[in-house]
């Protein structure tokens, strides 16, 4: 029997940095087991250049990454989502669309590196910190025995992963 491929949607407000990085990381690290997407409630319309540069420096694929509205994934022809993970506090507090199939959800809040102002060094550090946290959380997520956990245990595991800082 072929193991299932789980669809995961990372949600943020602007869909320009955190959720984009999470999408790229999970698609590469979880290839064959997970398929990641990202979207925003108020998409910026472009992916932050610092996010792209960081991903490319770390040898993650960036082709096809784009800032998208979450309504794309609430449409009838959208892929069925198994997990919806918010990565910013603002998106976690917003009223989300009703996702078909009632996917498992959790909040994995991370500070927004795109909101950081200052020198290039300060901005790079913010993006690196965000990347490290998301990369660690995704590594933990990819080793979860999803098919062996009941819904409550899985929900608790997802919430716990959202508390991991690095």
The termini sit apart by: 35 Å
Percentage of residues assigned to helices = 25-40%
Q: Give the low-pLDDT segments.
A: none
Per CATH, the superfamily is: Response regulator
The assigned CATH architecture is 3-Layer(aba) Sandwich
Q: Shape, please? A: globular
Q: What Rg, in angstroms, do the CA atoms define?
A: 15 Å
The side-by-side strand order for the widest beta sheet comes to 2-1-3-4
What is the overall number of helices? 5
CATH topology: Rossmann fold
Write down how many β-strands occur, each being a DSSP E stretch of 2 or more residues. 4
Given this structure, which CATH class is correct?
A: Alpha Beta
Your description of this structure?
The structure is a single chain. The protein is an alpha/beta fold and 166 residues long. It has five helices and four strands, in the order E-H-E-H-E-H-E-H-H. Strands 2-1-3-4 form a four-stranded parallel β-sheet. Strand 1, helix 1 and strand 2 form a beta-alpha-beta unit. Helix 1 crosses helix 4. The termini are far apart.
Give a brief description:
This protein is α/β, with parallel strands linked by helices and 166 residues long.
Write the layout of secondary structure elements.
Blueprint: E1 6-12, H1 18-29, E2 34-40, H2 49-57, E3 83-86, H3 89-93, E4 104-107, H4 120-142, H5 151-161
Helix pairs in contact: 1-4
């Amino acid at each position: 029997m072929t193991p299932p491929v789980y669809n995961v949607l990372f949600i943020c407000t602007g869909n320009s940095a955190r959720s984009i990085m999470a999408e790229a990381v999970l698609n590469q690290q979880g290839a064959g087991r997970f398929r990641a997407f990202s979207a925003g409630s108020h998409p910026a319309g472009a992916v932050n250049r610092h996010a792209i540069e960081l991903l490319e420096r770390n040898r993650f694929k960036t082709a096809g990454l784009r800032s998208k509205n979450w309504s794309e994934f609430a449409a009838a022809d959208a892929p069925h989502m198994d997990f919806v993970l918010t990565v910013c506090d603002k998106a976690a507090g917003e009223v989300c669309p009703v996702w078909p199939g009632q996917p498992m959800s959790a909040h994995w809040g991370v500070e927004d590196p795109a909101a950081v102002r200052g020198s290039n060094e300060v901005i790079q550090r913010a993006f690196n910190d965000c990347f490290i946290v998301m990369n660690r959380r995704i590594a933990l997520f990819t080793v979860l025995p999803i098919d062996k956990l009941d819904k409550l245990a899985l929900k608790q595991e997802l919430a716990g992963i959202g508390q991991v800082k690095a």
